[in-house]
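Entry 12.
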Amino acid sequence: MKMRRIYRSTLALAALVMLGSLLAACGTTGKAATLLDTEWQLTQLNGNDAVPVVLVSMKFAEDGKLIGNGGCNNYMGSWKHSDSNRLALSMGASTMMACEEPVMKQEHEFSLALEQTSRYRLEGDDLSLYNADNVKVAEFATLKATELTRTKWEAVGINNGEDAVISVDATTMTAVFAPDGTVSGSGGCNTFNSSYKRGADTLEIGVIAQTAMACDQGIMIQEQRFLKALEQSKTYELGNGTLDLRGSDGQLLVMFHESK
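Predicted 3D structure (tokens):
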């Protein structure tokens, strides 16, 4: 919200500077992460490891907005910091995609954990959230994203065209983004290639050319969904070994993990 008076803006800026200094002092290293300039990736939720190859992220914006990815859906919310290490989080709007049951279950529990948060602890590059009973509800690490290019990405979930992301069955679908702006891979039956344009968080893939092999009907349907999803991509988000492609409305199109 735009401040109407100059002195209010000055006070707000001073508060942010003070907050940044306070948060930096909570770490244990000289380059410790802070809430404000770090993107966080979920590592544990309610004492359990996060679902593997699924990116759950959180970022604190200076204007009090909370943004991130719950694993299936993008979300927005708000955050408020008070004295010491008190922290209140509030969930707001999100996209309305459906994913596999373990992903949706974790996303629901993650949302509840954020709402229950009453304080935090920063230690080096790790962030822990605690509820009012001083029970740790979530643990994060600074997001160390895998490089988009030169990585072989394997699809683990694709949009079925009905606002749901389903797991990949019976075949392997891959994509490799080359530094020269070309992308190639396998749709499970046919190989494909195209070009792509990349921005800070945008990714657009051109018209895809593919070979003309024929496979079982189920594999061919899955392949066409995959290739269509690639061509509909508008944004991307990288995690530690994960890549999510989303459409113009934020809908999840393809979930990849780094192929070992």
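Annotation: Confidence is low (pLDDT under 50) at residues 1-31. The chain has two domains: 6-142, 152-258.
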